[in-house]
């Protein structure tokens, strides 16, 4: 057990309601508040934004992402 997470979905569950970074297969990166997910890693983000070169490219709002389009999901690191 690393960092208190026994299963991969435990990390997603702990990130629910918090900002996450999502990297997609089409090389796009999104950030937003993780509202929900399922066993296929389909996710719902609120206040989603497309990020390019570290800057917001466009705001998307509430969005659904299919799990098979996602490369990784990471808890967002607060800006310093």
Report the uncertain regions.
none
Describe the main β-sheet briefly. Answer: 5 strands, antiparallel
Distance between the termini: 30 Å
Structural class: mainly beta
- Given the structure, what is the number of helices? 1
What is the highest CATH level, the class?
Mainly Beta
How many individual β-strands? 5
Number of domains: 1
Briefly note the CATH topology name: SH3 type barrels
- Radius of gyration over C-alpha positions, nearest whole angstrom: 12 Å
The helicity comes to 10-25%
- Proportion of strand residues: over 45%
Provide mean pLDDT, rounded. 91
In short:
It contains one helix and five strands, in the order αβββββ.
Would you write up a description of this structure?
The protein has 80 residues and is mainly β. The protein has one domain: SH3 type barrels, CATH 2.30.30. It is 10% helix and 52% strand. A 5-stranded antiparallel beta sheet has the order 4-3-2-1-5. Strand 2 and strand 3 form a beta hairpin. The longest helix is centred in the first third of the chain and has 8 residues. It is globular and about 35 Å long. The N and C termini lie far apart (30 Å).
């Amino acid at each position: 057990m690393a960092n208190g997470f026994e299963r991969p979905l435990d990390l997603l569950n702990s990130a629910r309601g918090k900002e996450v970074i999502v990297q997609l297969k089409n090389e796009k990166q999104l950030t937003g508040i993780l509202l929900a997910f399922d066993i296929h890693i389909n996710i719902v983000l609120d206040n989603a934004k497309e990020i390019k070169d570290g800057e917001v490219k466009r705001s998307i709002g509430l969005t659904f992402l299919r799990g098979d389009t996602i490369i990784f999901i990471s808890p967002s690191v607060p800006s310093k």
